[in-house]
Design goal:
15 helices, 44% helix, 9 strands, Alpha-Beta Plaits
Length: 336
């Protein structure tokens, strides 16, 4: 699948839904592995300077919704802090590397600038964030499973550029948080500890901030407007459960019945029901947002895909999405 390259968005704050799957789809991530990966996501996000809005770690894959800020310089103190974040239990080599970095920064020599640029290149970048998470987890996993060797993840991760405010952002976040419900692991995502929504409900500070950010407005990469934590929780829950927001159970509509409706011509479901089905727009739509937002990227998409003609902006099918569109129409196998 073609994706908008990160270089097309340099200097611009952007929101992405990224996901990666275990090689061969093997069910390798148990409770311990999920917990380690959960912690690594937050740790690497801090190092890279990206903001996790929500996430979900499953048995053979994970999703993360992140805001990637524009690249900018960092103070020496912040650079050193982030280095320590990435290596909370440093080896002798890493301790020596930190001392060398600290000394070079004090001297302001050429070596310091080379180190600075090498570290900065790993920050404010989606690809570097995902690469670091996957590499670090692979090393941990192989060491803790009989010195397992070889790759753990499929080569590339998928990503969707998401409009970073309002309905597109909120709907994408709800879809990610509902992964455990679609898999039949829980009836309510607040009961699945390895997702952003559950962490926010449990009072985890960073997860709470992410949920509040989802239900506030972004403009030029800055959080604007106010959304209290109770308001954010209530609105997110209403999106997940529809009119039955106070009911911890699922809609009575079974998935098979839902899919039968969707397979019919112009089949429509309530939004809260369709979010319990697999909807490939959220993983393969490439760019997701209002029609105006998506239209703003058709030129870049045309160049990346090598098409002769500008692609169409495709309305999403299956429910009243509220002006949500994608650049990849996905005419077949959209729902599952």
């Amino acid at each position: 699948m073609k994706r908008i390259k990160r270089t097309k968005l340099e200097g611009v704050s952007a929101v992405y839904h990224a996901m990666s799957r275990v090689v061969g789809g093997e069910m390798l991530l148990g409770e311990r592995e999920k917990e380690v990966l959960r912690k690594m996501l937050w740790q690497v996000a801090d190092f890279c300077g990206v903001e996790i809005l929500t996430y979900c770690v499953m048995t053979n894959h994970f999703h993360v919704l992140v805001r990637v800020p524009e690249k900018k310089g960092l103070s020496d103190a912040e650079l050193l802090r982030r280095f320590k974040v990435l290596y909370p239990k440093p080896t002798k080599y890493q301790t020596a590397e930190f001392a060398r970095l600290e000394q070079s920064l004090k001297l302001g020599d050429a070596d310091a600038e080379a180190i600075r640029q090498r570290l900065l290149a790993r920050m404010s970048d989606l690809s570097e964030f995902m690469k670091t998470v996957k590499q670090r987890f692979s090393i941990w996993y192989n060491r803790n499973h009989g010195n397992r060797k070889g790759t753990l993840w499929m080569d590339r991760f998928k990503s969707v550029l998401v409009e970073g405010q309002g309905n597109p952002l909120q709907t994408m976040a709800a879809y990610i948080d509902l992964n455990s419900v679609r898999a039949g692991l829980v009836e309510d995502p607040k009961d699945y500890r390895f997702c952003g929504y559950a962490e926010a409900v449990a009072g985890v500070k960073l997860a709470k901030y992410g949920l509040r950010a989802i239900w506030a407005a972004y403009a030029d990469g800055s959080l604007r407007g106010r959304s209290s934590m109770p308001d954010a929780l209530r609105m997110h829950r209403e999106l997940i459960f529809g009119k039955r927001a106070a009911d911890p159970g699922l809609s009575e509509m079974k998935r098979s019945k839902a899919l039968k409706v969707l397979e019919g011509e112009n089949g429509q479901l309530p939004k809260s029901a369709i979010l319990r089905c697999r909807v490939r727009y959220f993983t393969d739509g490439a760019i997701l947002g209002s029609a105006e937002f998506v239209r703003g990227f058709v030129g870049a998409w045309q160049m990346e895909s090598g098409r002769k003609h500008l692609p169409k902006v495709n309305d999403m099918r299956g429910t009243n999405w509220g002006d949500l569109a994608v650049i990849q129409g996905l005419r077949s196998n959209v729902f599952g």
